[in-house]
Amino acid sequence: MNSFADDLAAILREHPENLTDLAQKACISRPSLYDLINGKNLPRPTTLGNLITALELSEKAAQKLHDAHRSERLRTNRKEQDILLKEKKILLSEISDLLLQKGHEISRSNHSGGPDLILRSGSRRIPLHVTSRLIEHPAVLGHLLEAMHNLSTSTGYACVPKLTHEDRFYLPLFAKYGVKILTHKNLLRELK
For residues 122 and 151, is the Cβ–Cβ distance under 8 A? Predict the structure, then answer.
């Protein structure tokens, strides 16, 4: 299942109406609603709007569902993945240039799935994950922890252009394991 399906299933469990009535109000078939609940597909934006209206969600709950939908769409849509990859390459180039200008020694990982950059400071090597948007926070944390283990270090960084509300939510969890989510400006301050 995906985060959108999990959130939708939790909302539907608490909702007093049955699924048939909700599907009818949202102008979708009952099997289509089950497909959404089971995570087999994602709704179109208009269908999502109809579903939110049928569920009569609060603004906060509707925003949470919209965010989960957007996150899953970014994760699974090839077009969105291509856009994210281009943004990541540009950001990686900018951060590499900034770090080199400040006199830091950097290298790239020699295997896929590893950190985007490795900061070298004397005998220490620190993994750095660079992305335009953190979509799957637990997966990023897992990759950084694996890289930290392989590099025998206790510090790692996830670098984004701007911290989102969701990034701030995960800050304590990341900090517990010695990983920090930072903007590139804060990364430079951290490395001084």
Answer: no
Closest CA to 146 of 112, 99, 107, 95: 112
Q: What is the CA radius of gyration of the chain?
A: 20
Q: How far apart are CA 98 and CA 92, in angstroms?
A: 10
Residues facing 129 on adjacent strands: 158
pTM: 0.66
Domains of the chain and any CATH numbers? 3-76 (1.10.260.40), 79-191 (3.40.1350.10)
Distances in Å between the Cα of 86 and the Cα atoms of 125, 131, 158 are 26, 10, 18
Based on the number of CB atoms within 10 Å of its own CB, is 183 exposed (0-12), middle (13-18) or buried (19 or more)? middle
| 39-77: b (≥16 Cβ within 10 Å) or e | beebbeeebbebbbebbebeeebbebbbbbbbbbbebee
Query: d(Cα 102, Cα 192) in Å, to the nearest integer?
Result: 9
What is the average pLDDT across 29-50? 89
Written as six digits, the tokens of 105 are 């020694």
CA pair distance 95, 188, nearest whole angstrom: 9
- Identity of the residue numbered 166: E
Short-list 79, 63, 71, 82, CA closest to 39 = 71
Dump pLDDT digits (tens) for 132-166. 888 888 889 999 999 999 999 999 999 999 998 88
